[in-house]
Amino acid sequence: MSAAPASVTRTRRDVDLHEWARHRPAGGTDFDNHDAIRELSRRHAAASARDQQLLGGRAALDRLLTEPEPDPALLVQQVTALSVLRARLTQLADRTGRELLSLHAGEPPSAEAFNAALPADRALLARGVRLRIVYPVEFAQLSRVRTYTTTICADGAQVQFTDAVPYRMIISDGARAVVPIVRDRRSDGAIITTEPALVIGLRHLAWGLFRSGRELKQIDPAAPSGRPTQIELAVIRVMSEGLTDEAACKRLAVSERTFRRHVAQLLERLGATSRFQAGIRAVERGWL
């Protein structure tokens, strides 16, 4: 990617992620959660400071993953060549000195992938790096995931399992972020950014997922997945979009009584006292 003029690529710590995310250029591919994320972000001033940061990171991620080309005004690169991406990931690991926060989405790693990753992960821990990993809770049903988790935690890593992890992400020292791009179930490279406001927002998002998770010993491998059902996802989306009950019922093709019952159940499950707060907690748990 050609370098933008220095006057444009300067580090900008004053980027308003909510404002930046709202001005997404035309041409991106909409995700199912886009309208919900956009509306939650629009109302971010009503949230706590911590939740504003969480929403800012999620709104920024939505734009990063849907815009056709990275914003040339920010320190963002899109790397599509696999060999270049591998080299950049190796460089990122080598440069990490304090913390590596990794979210795993998609298919669970194979036993071979775990065996290949173990020496590098142990090298990070040996250097005093805090290695923090987040998996979807259904990964805990796999013996290879349980074995790797037990092994790496014994070496000092922290591994959490959360309801869902909808996106892959790596954050290094709160200063560098890598977000793989997956379109139509196919890898399309990754976005790499050192833009301070973006990285800070993405770390808040990743940390929210880590904080909402559970340790392996707290999970019953035989228990069903913590993922929301399709109806729960549909309801949390219309709740987050701020639709009236009448509009929500029409979209979901359910009665008002049924819709309100689903809302009440979601508020209880998410530990929320309002529909807006339920949307925030859904972001924190990886539902949106």
UniProtKB/TrEMBL annotation:
Organism for this UniProt entry: Antricoccus suffuscus
SUPFAM superfamilies: C-terminal effector domain of the bipartite response regulators
A Gene Ontology biological process term: regulation of DNA-templated transcription
Domain HTH luxR-type: 221-286
InterPro entries, alphabetized: Sig_transdc_resp-reg_C-effctor, Tscrpt_reg_LuxR_C, WH-like_DNA-bd_sf
Ranges in coiled-coil conformation: none
Record protein name field: Regulatory LuxR family protein
GO molecular function: DNA binding
